[in-house]
């Protein structure tokens, strides 16, 4: 089996793992056995904001396969996927205007499927295709499980959104190995093909895309959607999260970037932003100094007067900027500019 050669730079929530735990428990196995080799404990599954690495997630899935011996574990788990288990995000989807709007939000925040999938919608005349692209490189057995889960979970999610099953026209699984189609046809109640030249996808009548959702509520949807970016920031790799904070700081130079302003731009509270920065091993002040230093170097090379640079970076006076720059670089702004010329 092919194995991953590089670490996967993403994090996973425990929503999916709690689903796995419930299924394994029905087979008579304990949570401790499921979590063996992961450094996690049963209480972690009840921590709504805890994140785990993909390596831990893969170990749990290997344990689940070994314990349950389920032939189609991904299909079993996907059928049990319910939006209510995903808290605010699930109810944000439910309150969307129609299926199309819900799917657009789902593409941006594919929380129920995890962060290893990229979803896209293709509409050709009267047919809609939901394509699923797995972005990770893992051993074939787990990759197959993930694909099974993604397709059945999508089917379950859309049934929750519509309050009725979405009739499917066809399923294609773009994988090198073609198993027996019969079990998949029973799960999906439609023709299933295994064509490596086409994307993994499910198709349906495109008219369903504009079908109003029973729980549509514009006011509630707008309020809850503001929290979705916070959920997304939880799932981003620390590298991506810090890049977004740095970008927000740089965009705020015109108005003197502050912790409060940057937090607002990222749709979270100042305390939440500080907590995530601590988890990433840094602080807002450190990132602000980094951004100011980088920007200062650029402006010095453009021959901008020191007083204007100080003002543009939010310093109260030029002297304060000179002291900060010397602390960052070991030389004064004028020395830096002189050395750069030579």
Automatic annotation (TrEMBL):
HTH araC/xylS-type domain segment(s): 243-339
GO MF annotation list: DNA-binding transcription factor activity; transcription cis-regulatory region binding
Swiss-Prot/TrEMBL keywords: DNA-binding, Transcription, Transcription regulation
The keyword Hydrolase is annotated on this UniProt entry: no
Pfam families tied to this protein: Arabinose_bd, HTH_18
Cellular component annotations (GO), alphabetically ordered: cytosol
InterPro entries recorded: AraC-type_N, Homeodomain-like_sf, HTH_AraC, Tscrpt_reg_AraC-type_HTH
Protein name: Transcriptional regulator
